[in-house]
Amino acid sequence: MMGAPGSIGWLLRHEVRLAWYNASPGKANSARRPGAAGLATVGLVWLALHGIAFFIVGRTGDIDTSDPRVLVAVTALLYGCMTFMLSSALHTSVLVLFERGDMDLLLSSPLSSRSIFTVRLGVVVAGTAALYLFFLTPFAHAGAALGHVRWLAVYPVVVGCATVLACAAMLLTLALVRLIGARRTRVVAQVIGALAGALLFILAQLFNYLSGSREAQAMEAFSRAFSSSGALGAASPLWLPGRALLGEPWPILGLVLLAGAAFALTAAWTHRFFVHGLQQVASSSRVSQRSGREVRYRFGAGLFDTVVRKEWRLIRRDPHLISQVALQLIYLLPIFLLVFGETDIQYPAITAGLTLLCASLTASLAWIVVSAEDAPDLLVMAPASSRLIRLAKLAAGAMPALAIAFIPLAWLVMREPLAGLLACFTVSGATCTAAVIVHWCGKPATRSDYTTRGKTDTLTSLLEGANSLAWGGLGFCMSSIAGGSATDGYLAGAALTAMATVAILGLAWLLRRPGA
User: Fold this and answer.
1) Which range is most confident: 26-40, 65-79, 349-363?
2) What is d(CA 480, CA 484) in angstroms, rounded to the nearest whole number?
3) Rounded CA gap, 390 and 386, in Å?
4) In the chain, what's the furthest Cα-to-Cα distance?
5) Residue of 459, 468, 465 lying closest to 440 (CA atoms)
6) Is the pTM of this model over 0.70?
7) Around Cβ 422, how many Cβ atoms within 10 Å?
8) Which of 28, 187, 343, 443 has the fewest CB atoms lying closer than 10 Å?
């Protein structure tokens, strides 16, 4: 018995049923049960993970857990997982608050808002912990079967960390609703979640930069921090999650109590705040009143400039879309660090990185501008040059990436003219061809299909990826040759990648849509 109608158990059963019906990926806005083949595949993967776990645990189960190096490695791994947990929890919080579309109905029913919030918070916890439990519990089972009972600590540690981070994500989402409104919260929460997911990449690049440029100072600082009297010594609370994962009982108990208290307090104290936040969501969808100021119209811009501004204005008005596209810029940070650092600049890596990122960003913007055009029939019937409109739309997709890459490219040209000019060539070539490929092969779609465009328009996505890799490889090989590594391998690589760029563009032209 799952509880009386309206109880927490009754709502939880509804959430489980809803998750079950949406577990199988289908068409947009469709829900169906997972098929037998899908369930069998998941089961076989889980059994295969058990086999891998028995192989690994059988060779690592006797590791000395008192070794500080083991503690550091386990804690670092756990903190890395926690960053992705926070990203997932923020995404799920936005989903259950804004995207499900059923909160108005639930709040207008005689159900308790505390029950609704408790169940939704539980959904966030379950969604945050599920993936990690799937991949890590085979190791717990293998460890217990081989006599290492401490491996079972995976269960309370994963669930405890997921609970604490889910509570933090939900509270952060609701706080953002109060501070900046529900509409902007969707964007900010998604950006924060993506930043949390990309934090490991950025920190790893930062550590590589510090260890390369100031290796002696970095090692000395780390040695002082990890000493017995340092801030990161063995007694530091920073290592408590790692100690819990290694099976120490008191850290496990502390984490479980912290998770239980966080869940109880979040569910008990914030349900009113939750209702207030959702009321803001409902009110944010109302049409705002016109201001009393007189409307002024400005004319004089040419057709090309008008179309470019129109596309940028439409993108600017969709903050959710901006957040998804702008996440690619996060990975420019390590490249800026390398370009403006004092160490020896790795020109081939920087050239390839800038080329790949600019091509990817241009492909995304070009898809939004060209394939996701809201009124294509209106543009066709407009008394204007269709060729000029196409050029303006392609320019609107390509110009932002070139503008962002201008600063590092200018710096490279000043530091090393030949390498900088080669980087300008590959970045410009990759950017222009990415926009052209989307124009030729992109299928018409809506902007809401942006996250699934790889599934609905597979051909264009494959051509975009191949084009980016070909130009990135060409930039790497040409920069290596310019730097004095004119070996047969780099010469052959430059020739092959150059031919690949031409072949991919030719293939895209042959597969272009009628009228493109």
Assistant:
1) 349-363
2) 7
3) 6
4) 80
5) 459
6) no
7) 24
8) 28
